Amino acid sequence: MNAPNIVLAGNEDVERALGVRTLPVTFLVQAGGRLTLRFDGARDWTDEAFVRTYLKERVDGR
Q1: How far is CA 14 from CA 8, 17, 34, 48, in A?
Q2: CB 20 within 8 A of CB 2
């Protein structure tokens, strides 16, 4: 697995284009640029159940 690309807040053009109004916000984008998921608000990325439910099942199509 490759390390994710991370874009931090501060670019108003990007924030406006993506409809960012509050932070934190996380976007999961598949190869080719397709937006897969958007999470507004904080998430516990170390919670295995969360990762399994929202990342593996939805991104992999399971």
Answers
A1: 10, 5, 16, 30
A2: no
